[in-house]
Amino acid sequence: MRAIVCQEPGRLELVERPTPSTVPPGWARVAVGHVGICGTDYHIFEGKHPFLEYPRVMGHEVSATVVEAPADSGLQAGQRVIVNPYLSCGSCIACRQGKPNCCTAIKVLGVHTDGALCEEIVLPAQNLYPAGKLTPESAATVEFLAIGAHAVRRARVCEGARSLVIGAGPIGLGTALFSRIAGHEVTLLDASAERLEMARTRFGFERTVEAGNDVASVLAPLTDGDGFDVVFDATGYARSMESAFGYVAHGGTLVLVSVVKDEIRFSDPEFHKREMTLVGSRNATEEDFRHVVSCIESGKIPVQALITHRTTLEALPVDLAHWAHHKEGLIKAVVEIGG
Ligand SMILES: [Zn+2]
Ligand SMILES: [Zn+2]
């Protein structure tokens, strides 16, 4: 089969590889349909991922068609599915508590193990969910949207809450979309005027604020000085995460969606006087994937506005290298591999 291998940072190659020969008990074989490219993939390509071993086949945002599946899995050959790329151990404390998204031994397909930028993969049948009425292309957006859906679910704030999403990249946009679906009044904050323009024109987010000097005084009137009931940080910048504490209302919640390697600092009196709830949000679970599928089915997510770029396995080495340095107008690129 054809596969794209990242041989070392900066070098992607289209190669021939054997198709996976064995399917372990409880696992399924799927033909890859479409794969979304995300920030993690650009990091792997650029050698910025902290623990990555090369060579690596990337690809963790996956729609596929079942080739063979265990009889008791409820999956049929020919069925279209969405891949949950978080491979969990099933026995650690997090797995025992129904939180495989933060399994202590988690392996992410396409990061810690070879992923889906190829024609066929095998993985546990329990990591496959029916794609419902979704097109094969839109099914490849479910994973990154599920991260935003998970963050919103983790926030546990009610309808009518005033939310601030910091970072209008794909994860921030996904978070903002699910925050709006949850009935929140959403404000988006980003340093890029171009991204905010896309958020307004493509997704109808009217309240956008460009980061710059004295953002706090621009944000304050949006809540009559109260602060936001919930703030989501999806920037991947420690300084932004630290500032985010200051935008939370008394009694409010801060959800850290993106992760940084650095330590972050905050003022305990500011945190304490608000009785703030600080929440980490990592990956997503089956419940989030299914919520995303039903929101796309009911037309609440404008998937076609999210997919801005398309390519094929053959063209990917050139295209991905280009997009790594030219992200103007890019939200989500999708690779078409099979039907
Ligand atoms: Zn991703
Ligand atoms: Zn586990």
Automatic annotation (TrEMBL):
Pfam families attached to this UniProt entry: ADH_N (PF08240), ADH_zinc_N (PF00107)
Span of domain Alcohol dehydrogenase-like C-terminal: 170-297
All copies of domain Alcohol dehydrogenase-like N-terminal, residue ranges: 25-131
Entry-linked Gene3D superfamilies: Medium-chain alcohol dehydrogenases, catalytic domain (3.90.180.10), NAD(P)-binding Rossmann-like Domain (3.40.50.720)
Keyword Nucleus: no
Record keyword Oxidoreductase present: yes
Keywords annotated in UniProt: Oxidoreductase
Designated name of the protein: Zinc-binding alcohol dehydrogenase family protein
